[in-house]
Amino acid sequence: MKKRSTASAASPVTRCEAKTGAGGSELFLYGDIGAGWFGEGITAETVKEELATCKGALSVYINSAGGSVFEGLAIYSQLRRYDGGAVTCFVDGLAASIASIIALAGSRTEMSRASLMMIHEAQAIVLGNAGDMRKCADDLDTVTGTMRGVYTAKTGMSDKEAGALMAAETWLSAADCVAKGFADAIVADEAPDEGDGGEVAARLVDTYRNTPANLRHMPQAIALARATLTLQRDTLRRSPAGGDPRPAGRSRNGKG
């Protein structure tokens, strides 16, 4: 069986890896979506490289707390365009935020009995004046609408119903996903033992406001500290000394 990996050396729990054999191909997406500060994370470019090695029917295994909405939408589109065979997405542990969109890219979505999905509206961090804030809000509405369209196409829900679930930051069990149409079935077998799957979900899961208490891996204070550090880094990157040409008020990539 052919095997190659673009997992980041800086982040051993992040994994984007394809395996191809006589029966088809497997793609593992275990980690945050989008490049992090130190190069970790799963990007559309790494998925593109892995998909180029795949042949035949494709099984995509997902365990991710989400990340960059734009990288995630690109990955979704890549999987939709895959023409080597049928694409089936399996949620091994968590498909939260933009990872829930990726989980719906195949012709079929299946959930492990021990898996979860979470959907919410698009989020972003922005610095600037009142006009910048209003524009960011409008942009987020547009991004949220794009994500909502993916959910309604899969589930058959109305925009209003899907929008209410997103606004509430809704956590769905495997059974909930099947009942509401986000998934087609619950797989009978346990998810494959791929090592650090549980750690992957811990990286972003604590920053969501409605994360179930038993899923949190760190105190909220630490999550807040991380958000503060991100703001500080953005400020430094925007300073003249940092050489960043972005004008004040320009938001970072949306998070989903």
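^ that was protein a. below is b, sequence first then the tokens
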Amino acid sequence: MAKIKVGIAELAVARFPDSVTTLGLGSCVGVAIYDETKRIAGLVHIMLPAMDLAKGAEFNRAKFADSGIPQLLEMMLRAGALGRRLTAKIAGGAQMFTFSDKTDSVRIGSRNVEACRRTLQNLGIPLLAEDTGGSFGRTVEIFSETGLYEIRAVGKDKRII
């Protein structure tokens, strides 16, 4: 069994028996998509809510919820997943620092979570579970065998959703 590592603003797809993991989700969101029948799991490490935040003509689609999740969907379909069987789980979106400024620009974690939910809904992918918010970082792993999404955080009990 291989553990495929995904960095910030990266994505990957795994087939049984492999898993996909990412470290250091603070305000970022790890979006896991799964096809139970084919046992195909995908994970994208979302950094920002929308492509309109991109600077310059070229950008990494995996960085943004509104482009990274559709890109992961495309990869999963190419790997043999069937769209109507796909489900999703998300984790992350923490508010890592306290700011006196209460504007949207500092609420990046909650904005990321909202954008991920909206994008999944627009794509017709049901969101089955989430572990979001708080003020702590997370490490996550999606297992292609079961679709279980494991969430670990320092000083917290391991969660499986």
